[in-house]
Design a protein that fits this description.
The protein is mainly alpha-helical and 251 residues long. It is built from 9 helices and 2 strands; from the N terminus they run H-H-H-H-H-E-H-E-H-H-H. The termini are far apart.
C-alpha cells in the first residue's frame, strides 16, 4: 500500500468514525485531526470522491468538473473587452446564513422572473467555488435547481477574480455606496428592514443611475439589459397564390 493510499484510508476512517459517533469533535480528537481539517476532508470527499482523499503537492488544486478552462477564460475575457455586452443589472438579497438554499432562493425569486418577464432565458451561470454553489451534482440543491431549469453551471478559477470581475466590482459598489452609508445613518433591527432599504437602492441603481462602466456610455443597467435581449424575428409574409384565371362561358 502506497503512502497516499494509507493517508486516504485514514481520512476515510475519520469520516466513518464521525458518522458512527455522531460527534465530529470526538472523532477528530481520537484520530488526531482538527475540526477544520475534518470539514475540508469531508468537502473534498463529497466533491471528488475517493480522489479527494489523496494529498497533493502544496498549491496544487483539483479542477472542478465545471470550471472554465484557462484557454476558454482567456477567450471570454478577450471577447468581453472587444464586444462589451454586460448590462451590469444587479440583484441582491440579505441572508443570515450562506447556504445552497439561499443561492437557490435568489435565483428563483429575483433573477429568473426578471428574464422570464422579457421572454428571455438564462443559458449559463458563472459562480464562485463556495459550498453554497458547489457540491455533488446529484445532491447539491443549487446544482439540482440549475439542472431543473436547464441552465449550465460554470465556476471561476480559484484566486482569479478577473473571471467574474463585473460581479466583484458590483460587490464593491454595494459596499461603498450603500452598506457603509446606511450603516452610519440608519439603525436596523431586522434583516427585513435592511432588505427593504437595499431594494430601494437597487431600484435606483438599475433604472435611474447612469453607469460609466465599459460599454455603458452613461446608460442605466435596465436600458442596456433590455437593449441586449434577443430581438424577435419578423414573421415572413406568406406569398399570395396567383389568382387562377376563370373563363366564363356564356350560354
Amino acid at each position: 500500500m502506497t503512502t497516499d493510499q494509507k493517508i486516504a484510508r485514514r481520512k476515510l476512517s475519520l469520516l466513518e468514525l464521525a458518522s458512527e459517533l455522531s460527534n465530529v469533535s470526538k472523532a477528530c480528537k481520537l484520530m488526531g485531526y482538527s475540526r477544520q481539517q475534518f470539514y475540508e476532508i469531508r468537502r473534498n470527499f463529497q466533491t471528488y470522491g475517493a480522489d479527494g482523499l489523496i494529498d497533493r503537492l502544496p498549491g496544487a488544486r483539483r479542477p472542478h468538473p465545471n470550471r472554465v478552462a484557462p484557454e476558454i477564460e482567456a477567450a471570454i475575457l478577450a471577447h468581453a473587452l472587444e464586444h462589451p455586452c454586460h448590462s451590469r443589472y444587479g440583484w441582491a438579497r440579505l441572508y443570515s446564513s450562506k447556504l445552497p438554499v439561499t443561492a437557490v432562493h435568489l435565483m428563483n425569486t429575483d433573477v429568473l422572473p426578471a428574464f422570464e418577464a422579457h421572454n428571455a432565458r438564462i443559458e449559463v451561470v458563472l459562480s464562485g467555488n463556495g459550498r453554497e454553489y458547489c457540491g455533488r451534482p446529484d445532491q447539491h440543491p443549487y446544482a439540482l435547481f440549475l439542472q431543473l431549469e436547464e441552465i449550465e453551471h460554470r465556476t471561476t478559477r480559484v484566486k482569479r477574480p478577473q473571471s467574474n470581475g463585473i460581479a466583484e466590482r458590483f460587490h464593491r459598489t454595494l459596499l461603498d455606496e450603500h452598506f457603509r452609508v446606511e450603516g452610519r445613518r440608519s439603525w436596523f433591527e431586522t434583516i427585513g428592514e435592511m432588505q427593504a432599504v437595499l431594494g430601494d437602492y437597487l431600484a435606483g441603481y438599475n433604472t435611474k443611475r447612469p453607469h460609466q462602466g465599459r460599454g455603458m456610455n452613461g446608460r442605466t443597467p435596465e436600458t442596456v439589459f433590455i437593449a441586449g435581449l434577443p430581438k424577435p424575428q419578423p414573421k415572413q409574409k406568406e406569398k399570395a397564390e396567383p389568382r387562377k384565371r376563370q373563363d366564363h362561358i356564356a350560354a
